[in-house]
Amino acid sequence: MSIDNQKDYWDRVANEKTFTHPIDLALLQTRLSRDALIVDYGCGYGRIVHELEKQGYSNVMGYDSSVALINRGNTGSDRKNLYHINDPCDLPLDDHSVDCFLLMAVLTCIPSNRAQQSLINLLIRKLKPGGLIFISDYYLGENATPDHGEYSTLHDDPLNYGVFTLPEGATFRHHTREWISMLLKNLSIISEKMIEVKTMNGHKTEAFQILASNAGDNG
């Protein structure tokens, strides 16, 4: 199991975890039509996908590498628009076809700089001109919760800082602001804010939410 694709862990805990990061619906409604192609990458059990459908968005789908999470989300659903991908980089969508990607607490599940940058590059390639990426995740310093112990580097790389391992065995990451800026250097930041969230283990903390565009759109 790759540290950047811990699908065995997610399969094991698929029915135990509750994901809570909220989507900024008001912000997305100003920029996305109801028929926009919205892809929740790392969708888990499809919480956000189904929320957007309830708000009238008709072209929403989700992808995740955990088959157990996908099965949880599709159980009892009339629309089976949550899809399993074994390889996180094997996203079966045409280049320049997506209006908006959602990354809801996904970067935290990908500890390495290399894999995070590969993912962002992939999503940029799949976006239409002017397409959007909405990210909800964690910086360092706003996360003094029992979820993690001492931060460390990955592979002794000082630029790959903020890594920690939960007692249950999975490795996660929180981010320096400098790294997120580097990661998104080929995108234009439209908006950023901090919000209060609960982690999947129920601890209160803060998360950042960034909306970015691949077309130099600064809002």
Low-confidence segments: none
Oligomer: single chain
Residues in helix, %: 10-25%
Q: Ends: how far apart?
A: 40 Å
User: What is the domain total for the residues?
Assistant: 1
Descriptive terms for the model:
219 residues, alpha/beta, Rossmann fold, seven-stranded mixed sheet, three-stranded antiparallel sheet
Kindly describe this structure.
This protein is of the alpha/beta class and 219 residues long. It has a single domain, classed as 3-Layer(aba) Sandwich (Rossmann fold), CATH 3.40.50. The protein is built from 6 helices and 10 strands; from the N terminus they run ααβαβαββαββββαββ. The protein has helices at 7-13, 25-29, 47-54, 67-74, 113-126, 177-183, and strands at 38-41, 60-64, 82-84, 98-104, 127-137, 152-154, 157-165, 171-173, 188-198, 204-213. The chain has a 7-stranded mixed sheet with strand order 3-2-1-4-5-10-9. A hairpin with a 2-residue loop joins strand 6 (152-154) and strand 7 (157-165). The chain is globular.
List the helices and strands and how they pair.
Blueprint: H1 7-13, H2 25-29, E1 38-41, H3 47-54, E2 60-64, H4 67-74, E3 82-84, E4 98-104, H5 113-126, E5 127-137, E6 152-154, E7 157-165, E8 171-173, H6 177-183, E9 188-198, E10 204-213
Parallel strand pairs: 1-2, 1-4, 2-3, 4-5
Antiparallel strand pairs: 5-10, 6-7, 7-8, 9-10
